[in-house]
Amino acid sequence: MAAIVLFDGECNFCDASVQFIIKRDPKGYFQFAAQQSDIGETLKHQYKVPNSMDSILVIDQHKVYYSSDAALHISKHLNGLWSYLYMLKATPKPLRDVAYKFIAKNRYAWFGKKDSCMIPPPEIRKRFL
């Protein structure tokens, strides 16, 4: 079963992050869904994700990863040197999450916000739920 990345479909930074993951995940380990989509809402409800959660989420083998844990879980499965970022898991989670939350809090101001979710090109559409 593929892991699912739930991302903010209105966030330009999040959209760029999804494109980044797709380019470095040629085996298709990850599938994607916007948190605002019907499937995203259903998965968040199914896994009891709080509405206040302002983070990329990864669901892999029925476990949910949030914030820096989600980002590092993604990096572990990417091609090339990106997988080495997983070594940052040794950094204490509170410290990692401070950096993650700082970026998450400012992502709209720095990168902008979309009026709607992107429509993926046909060659990668099958990876979107």
Describe what this molecule looks like in 3D.
The structure is a single chain. A hairpin with a 2-residue loop joins strand 3 and strand 4. With 129 residues, the protein is α+β, with helices and mostly antiparallel strands. The chain has a 4-stranded mixed β-sheet with strand order 2-1-3-4, with helices on one face. The chain is built from 5 helices and 4 strands. Helices cover 42% and strands 14% of the residues. The longest helix is centred in the last third of the chain and has 19 residues, at 93-111. It has helices spanning 12-23, 38-46, 67-76, 93-111, 122-125; strands at 3-7, 30-34, 57-60, 63-66.
Give a brief description:
With 129 residues, the chain is an alpha+beta fold.
Report the radius of gyration as a whole number of Å: 14 Å
Helix content, binned percent: 40-55%
Secondary-structure element order, N to C: EHEHEEHHH
* Main sheet attributes: strand count, strand direction, barrel closure: 4 strands, mixed
Q: What's the structural blueprint in terms of helices and strands?
A:
Elements: E1 3-7, H1 12-23, E2 30-34, H2 38-46, E3 57-60, E4 63-66, H3 67-76, H4 93-111, H5 122-125
